[in-house]
């Protein structure tokens, strides 16, 4: 603890607190672990499309849509197995090829093709865009952590935590954008675990960044107050 001597006044202790980086970094690391788990989660959207009671055995048929795949699951009571799993881009191409084979290349215009196969293409584009945005947010957060640990953070105290906050904002914005890009038929599907994990990851980034900004502002305010006392 240093002391500031002021003529004709009491000695004022000059006490500087520092930003508590450990909890901020832990929140960021936890978020950075969850973000890729969310990206590769097979369940961003899901639905039960059929349930039958076959001689006392409950037969279910479920679908799961991730950012890049479509899966069909068949269950007999609690015994479930994935029977079909394909990339969304491949499904669009398969749909396109089937329509051309059945109708002929000259018989199908672009509008009709878009109506028949467009939803698969929209899902594929939405997933790719969301992946890119989430990985971008991870890079921003990681860069913010590095800046917070570097000497530059002494001069620009709020910068690293603003970067981390921005990363959290990008994560949450990517999910909102994904929902906006989804085709109309997905309105009847339920939200899956992938969305929840991604949202939680974004909230962790935001929380870490906001904590850092608040602590940095308090530190700056404290320093300004001490400097103003020293100048009097």
Can you walk me through this structure?
- This protein has 232 residues and is α+β, with helices and mostly antiparallel strands.
- It has a single domain, classed as Up-down Bundle (Butyryl-CoA Dehydrogenase, subunit A, domain 3).
- Helix content is 61%, strand content 19%.
- The strands form 2 sheets. A 5-stranded antiparallel beta sheet has the order 6-5-4-3-7.
- The chain is elongated.
Show unreliable segments.
1-14
Question: How are the strands of the largest sheet arranged?
Answer: 6-5-4-3-7
Measured distance between first and last alpha carbons: 20 Å
Give the fraction of residues assigned to helices: 55-70%
Mean pLDDT: 86
Number of helices: 6
**Strand percentage, roughly?**
15-25%
β-strand number: 7
Class by SSE composition = alpha+beta
- Morphology: elongated
- The CATH architecture can be named as Up-down Bundle
- What is the level 1 CATH name? Mainly Alpha
Q: Radius of gyration, rounded?
A: 27 Å
Domains (count): 1
CATH topology-level name: Butyryl-CoA Dehydrogenase, subunit A, domain 3
What is the N-to-C order of secondary-structure elements (H for helix, E for strand)? EEHEEEEHHHHEH
Largest sheet: 5 strands, antiparallel
């Amino acid at each position: 603890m240093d002391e500031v001597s002021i003529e004709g006044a009491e000695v004022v202790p000059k006490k500087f607190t520092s930003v508590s980086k450990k909890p901020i970094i832990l929140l960021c690391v936890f978020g950075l672990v969850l973000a890729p788990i969310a990206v590769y989660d097979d369940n961003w959207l899901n639905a039960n499309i059929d349930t039958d009671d076959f001689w006392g055995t409950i037969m279910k048929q479920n679908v799961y849509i991730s950012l890049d795949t479509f899966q069909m699951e068949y269950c007999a009571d609690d015994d479930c197995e994935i029977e079909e799993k394909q990339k969304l881009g491949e499904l669009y191409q398969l749909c396109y090829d089937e329509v051309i084979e059945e109708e002929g290349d000259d018989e199908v215009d672009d509008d009709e093709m878009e109506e028949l196969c467009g939803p698969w293409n929209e899902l594929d584009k939405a997933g790719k865009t969301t992946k890119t945005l989430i990985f971008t947010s991870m890079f921003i957060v990681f860069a913010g952590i590095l800046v917070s640990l570097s000497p530059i953070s002494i001069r620009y105290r709020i910068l690293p935590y603003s970067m981390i906050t921005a990363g959290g904002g990008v994560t949450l914005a990517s999910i909102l954008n994904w929902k906006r890009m989804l085709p109309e038929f997905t309105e009847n599907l339920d939200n899956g675990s992938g969305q929840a994990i991604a949202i939680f990851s974004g909230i962790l980034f935001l929380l870490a960044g906001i904590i850092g900004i608040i602590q940095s502002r308090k530190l700056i305010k404290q320093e300004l107050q001490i400097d103003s006392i020293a100048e009097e």
